[in-house]
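RECORD TYPE: inverse folding
INPUT: structure tokens
STRUCTURE:
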């Protein structure tokens, strides 16, 4: 009799111990009874029915993240980009996250990749690069709508990299260099025009206009020749000063005549 009672007690203790389940802090677990969802176990000590209850899934309810691997995307103006992102999410309802979707992490990753490519395709290159924050917000709103039925919450989407392809970068560098060269040429032309304008104003009231104009033109000639000589492949041929003066004689004569006419006096010999 006592042996029978002892066996019953030992069996009950063994049954009870076998049904004890400990869930770690920050986790939850799903229990199925005879193949059907029964209840959700929270952190701490829980009792289940051995042989009838089975834990089918245990996962964290803390925030998790998924690294979206670099992928190709095409902008509205047909520029190929390489984009990379990180999505942060957490489980709000473990039961729905398990039964409503086959693999919630993979589903989130696929949807983020699809939406990211779509958002970039609606923007031109310049706007894509400068509107990363806008893209993050739009993606967060769309993911929030789609994952609501999955029992999860996407808390943040961070587009980390938006890199044009190597050929696009080379084209951008060439375009930037051409723009810089164009601006330099414009500034140089404006500077030369201003320089000549100042000379013209100075000559208007000078009796020795010929000598002043000759000096400035010669100076400009020497400066230009010096710049050309700095090139390794250039060959500079300097003009004889007498020949230079003779070549400028028509210009100097015309300029001198204009000055003398405006001043009402004859040039000095």
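DESIGNED SEQUENCE:
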């Amino acid at each position: 009799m006592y042996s029978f009672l002892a066996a019953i007690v030992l069996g009950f203790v063994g049954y009870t111990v076998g049904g004890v389940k400990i869930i770690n802090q920050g986790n939850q677990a799903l229990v199925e009874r005879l193949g059907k969802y029964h209840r959700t176990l929270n952190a701490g000590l829980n009792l289940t029915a051995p042989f009838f209850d089975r834990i089918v899934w245990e996962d964290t309810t803390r925030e998790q993240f998924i690294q979206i691997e670099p992928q190709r995307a095409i902008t509205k103006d047909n520029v190929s980009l390489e984009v990379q992102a990180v999505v942060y999410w957490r489980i709000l309802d473990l039961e729905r996250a398990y039964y409503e979707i086959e693999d919630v992490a993979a589903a989130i990753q696929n949807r983020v990749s699809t939406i990211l490519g779509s958002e970039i395709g609606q923007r031109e290159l310049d706007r894509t690069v400068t509107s990363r924050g806008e893209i993050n917000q739009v993606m967060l709103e769309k993911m929030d709508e789609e994952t609501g039925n999955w029992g999860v919450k996407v808390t943040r989407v961070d587009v980390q990299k938006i890199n044009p392809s190597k050929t696009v970068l080379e084209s951008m560098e060439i375009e930037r260099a051409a723009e810089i060269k164009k601006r330099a040429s414009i500034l140089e032309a404006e500077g030369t025009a201003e320089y000549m304008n100042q000379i013209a104003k100075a000559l208007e009231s000078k009796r020795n206009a010929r000598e002043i104009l000759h000096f400035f033109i010669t100076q400009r000639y020497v400066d230009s020749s010096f710049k050309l000589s700095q090139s390794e492949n250039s060959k500079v041929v300097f003009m004889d000063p007498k020949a230079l003066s003779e070549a400028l004689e028509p210009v100097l004569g015309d300029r001198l005549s204009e000055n003398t006419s405006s001043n009402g006096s004859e040039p000095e010999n």
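NOTES: The helical segments are 2-18, 94-99, 104-121, 125-130, 132-147, 166-203, 209-229, 241-263.
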